[in-house]
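Protein fold
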Amino acid sequence: MQSFLKATLPADAQQATLVGRAWIEGQGAVLVKVDGDVLVDISRLAATSSALMELDDPAAAVREHAGRAIGSVAEAVANSSADARVVDSPWLMAPCDLQAVKASGVTFVASMLERVIEEQARGNPAMAESVRKEVVAVIGDDLSKVRPGSPEAAQLKQVLVGKNLWSQYLEVGIGPDAEIFTKSQPMSAVGTGAEIGIHPKSEWNNPEPEIVLVVNSRGETVGATLGNDVNLRDFEGRSALLLGKAKDNSASCAIGPFIRLFDAQFGIDDVRRCDLAMQVRGPEGFVMQGASSLSKISRDPLDLVGQAIGANHQYPDGFMLFLGSLFAPTQDRDAPGAGFTHKVGDRVSIRSARLGELCNRVNHSEKAAPWTFGLRAFMANLAHRGLLARGL
């Protein structure tokens, strides 16, 4: 159990300010912090994750708050696994609650090219390899020096328009305006150990390992965590208007294991240097390794935050912002040239040394645990626990 815990927490966990949410039977969703090997209830400091992020210095407030111990971190982590959960013991939920869940798309060159390929292939995975070769032959596979919104990007656009290769994905990849979309609804994200869902009609899909920023209502980025932006490549490839169906299904958004609050030991510059490692291990023995590095992102993380919130769009409860992924799987799984798609039973682990590890098992979305604990249930739970008066 200790080795499992070590994998879940950041490598420098003793210096990290980590907060999350735990389900405690008979109480409900409880805001917690990691204090050494113990989970501590901090709901008297803030009733919700959203409210905690509104404090002037969330990390300092968390460190100074002495709450009630609810159990060991190791036991809660082990009990978070969907196939081994004991109802009467605490388990980890997604560490956000009232915050909107937003995502940035096409923020890395490699994944941008794969989106162009999805579009050109009309969502047909059998066509992907031939389309990939055609696209790369024309525009190359290294656009890393093209700064989004720059005169050079505008010039490249004109060249591609002339070759009938301009794409909506290139528009947001190297154009002035970033793609910011709604990934899922507040309270709907699942945490580490939970099943993640793919639509049963999807035949071409993949995980997207990402850093997720935590932003309060004032537009201040106050922490970060890990996320899996599960994506249906066939749905989105057929039409960009199917983005909602490609991205927002039951259990299709995983966030966790904990939010690491910004403090003297960890801040936005550390996020900019974060590397992610991902592994997919299939029930038939298939193994795929992947990686994503924030140092290769096309747009600065704070630029993406600035494009998400401002005079034109407010988030009174704050928001979680997926930063996009460099990872775009092309490894063949079932047949040469067929590429990668998920199978039920796949186990996906996403790890960053500074943020820990997020682990989930794949199932069809209608078979994953249904989302029942929404905003009304949460408000009723807080009222029952006497926390509504403390503010949300």
